[in-house]
Specification:
The protein is built from 9 helices and 12 strands. The protein is of the alpha/beta class and about 280 residues long. The strands form 3 sheets. Strands 1, 2, 3, 4, 7, 8, 9 and 12 form an 8-stranded parallel β-sheet that branches. A two-stranded antiparallel ribbon has the order 5-6. It is globular and about 60 Å long.
Amino acid sequence: FDSVWMSEHHLTDDGLLPSPLIMAAAIAARTHRIRIGTNIIPLPLHHPLRIAEDAAVADLISAGRMVLGLGQGYAKPEFAAFGADRRRRGSLLEEGIGILRRAWTTDGRFSFAGEHWSFDEVQVTPRPRRPLPIYVGAVTEPALRRAARIADGILVYCGKVSDLRARLGMIKNLGLELPVVATGILHVAPSAEQAWAEAAPGIAYLEGQIAKYGQRTHPEELNRDDYLVGAPGEVIEKLAALRAEFDVDHFAHWARLPGLSHSRCTETLELIAAELLA
C-alpha cells in the first residue's frame, strides 16, 4: 500500500468522517512513507483560506506527503446545514482552488476580489513544503474537462466495475493527460462465496446511501459480477484487465466496508497485501 485516502461527509446516520484533514495530520504523525490524501473534501462547504491553512499544517507534519483532493459536493442536506449555495457549487470550487494556489505561492500578503470571496492584504501561514498537489473529483464529461483545466490529477469514484470502466474510457477518449486515482469497492476472502457474503450487505448499504445523497429513491440491485469482490485470483484478473485497458496511477478502495469488524478488515488487508500486491 502506498497511499491512504479519506472522504468527508457530514450529519450522516453512520458517522462518516467529517474532518479528513485532522485525520490526515494524525496519520502523518504516525507514518513515514505512505502518501496521504483526501478523497474528497467538498470545498464549497468551507472557506478556502481555512482549508489552505489546515492543509499546510497537515503537509508539514507529513513532511510533504499530502495530496489535497477536492470536489464540488452534491448532498443537499450538507449544503443546507452549512448555508452553502448548492446551485453555485461549481464556481465555488473553481474560485476556491484559485485562492488555495495563491495562498501557497504568494510571497507576503495578497488580496482577492471574486464572485464568492473577497479579502484584503492577507497572509496564509504556515507555508507548506511546496504547493500541495490538488486533485479534483469528477465523473461526468464536463467535470472531467474542468478537472483537466484546474487540477493536477483526477479522482474517480465508482462502486461498479462497469461504471468505472465507462469513466476511465471517457478520460481516455478525451485525451486527458493527468494522474488518475480510481476509487471503488474491493473485498477479498479465501473463497468467492465468503467474500460476497461478507461484502454484499455493506455494498448494498453504500449504494443506498449514495442514492439517498443523490436524491434517488432506490439504489440499483447488486450484480455480483460487477464488483471487485471474490477470491484473490479473480479480483487480480479484473484489476489486471482494467490496468491493461486504462492508464490508472492508483486504485483506492474502502478499507472497511460497512458491517465488517475491524479484525476482519485487517485480515482482508493482509490478504490483499500478500496476494494482490505481491
